[in-house]
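Customer escalation, tier 2.

The customer says the design service returned an amino acid string that "doesn't look like it belongs to this structure." They asked us to rerun it and document both sides in this ticket. The original structure tokens are below, unchanged.
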């Protein structure tokens, strides 16, 4: 038996494995005549890393926006730990869902540390007047916030750059700073929209490790990525969105082996899978090429 000595205000069994953290049902988002997301169901359980993949324009970011109160879905319902989410992004953050953005959104003229401190505002109780008057309560809260922000920078590997301006960080580090800022709101679920976009393979690998470490801290993760190696290494479950609809969902092997997913990525209609005639044609061509290669050495004597 372990005793939890933290003072986190989470419900007692909120981090128990298998507990439903996110429950999105029948989420539909229409923009005028365009249905960007159509009737999507998705759950994320505690302890899970779930992937969301799909071709460009499939509706992945729009779905994230529906989960985080940036958009109010045309239809459907989103619950976080059993409660329907309020349709305001700051309230969703306060409820326990944090996110990063596909297009990095940092305060570029603030320092790295200040950016993380901004992410903490939903968790600090000190109000506006306290900040203006700067009484002892404010100073105590500020010191605690700084300490936590430094811990998070350490966690993502940016502590040494705490005083640098965010805009001077290389791109890969800006993405990590966004993750630190999201973690500053002490979420129970983290949504990452293309966290490795623009990263080199080494940075991608450290991001992979970082996401595992986040999961190990008891934070469930839902991640959008186009890097399939990253997704299939990382995720317990992967859902595939195509033209706004969830096409397939399952473990990595199930999704990788699904012909409809391959077809969706190749952009080919898969109703007419390669027929026997085409297969035979390819085999004949290969056999002919092989025969020519075998015959090739003899050509030397033809001279
Ligand atoms: N605010 C909006 N108004 C109108 N159409 C929108 C809006 N946001 C997204 N769309 C449209 O919804 C569709 C889905 O876009 P979305 O950005 O969600 O795709 P995505 O899967 O995230 O793509 P990518 O992999 O390129 O990031 C696209 O056709 C897009 O043009
Ligand atoms: Mg997107």
């Amino acid at each position: 038996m372990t005793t939890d000595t933290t003072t986190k205000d989470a419900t007692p069994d909120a981090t128990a494995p298998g507990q439903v953290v996110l429950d999105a049902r029948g989420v539909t988002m229409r923009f005028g005549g365009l249905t960007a997301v159509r009737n999507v169901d998705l759950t994320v359980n505690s302890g899970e890393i779930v992937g969301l993949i799909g071709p460009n324009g499939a509706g992945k970011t729009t779905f994230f926006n529906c989960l985080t109160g940036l958009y109010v879905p045309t239809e459907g319902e989103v619950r976080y730990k059993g409660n329907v989410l309020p349709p305001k992004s700051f309230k969703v953050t306060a409820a326990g869902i944090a996110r990063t953005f596909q297009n990095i959104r940092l305060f570029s003229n603030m320092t790295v540390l200040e950016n993380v401190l901004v992410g903490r505002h939903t968790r600090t109780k000190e109000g506006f007047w306290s900040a203006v008057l700067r009484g002892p309560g404010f100073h105590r809260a500020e010191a605690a916030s700084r300490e936590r922000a430094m811990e998070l920078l350490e966690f993502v590997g940016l502590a040494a750059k705490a005083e640098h301006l965010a805009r001077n960080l290389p791109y890969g580090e800006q993405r990590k700073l966004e993750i630190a800022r999201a973690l500053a709101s002490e979420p129970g679920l983290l949504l990452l929209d293309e966290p490795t976009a623009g990263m080199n393979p080494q940075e991608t690998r450290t991001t992979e490790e970082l996401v595992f470490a986040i999961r190990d801290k008891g934070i469930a993760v839902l991640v959008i990525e186009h890097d399939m190696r990253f997704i299939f290494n990382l995720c317990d479950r992967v859902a595939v969105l195509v033209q706004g609809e969830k096409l397939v969902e399952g473990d990595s092997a199930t999704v990788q082996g699904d012909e409809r997913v391959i077809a969706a990525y190749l952009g080919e209609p898969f109703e007419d899978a390669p027929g026997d005639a085409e297969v035979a044609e390819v085999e004949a061509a290969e056999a002919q090429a092989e025969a020519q290669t075998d015959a090739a050495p003899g050509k030397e004597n033809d001279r």
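Tier 2 assessment: The sequence is consistent with the input. The chain is about 40% helix and 20% strand. Residues 260 and 271 are 9 Å apart (CA to CA). Sent an explanation to the customer and offered a walkthrough call.
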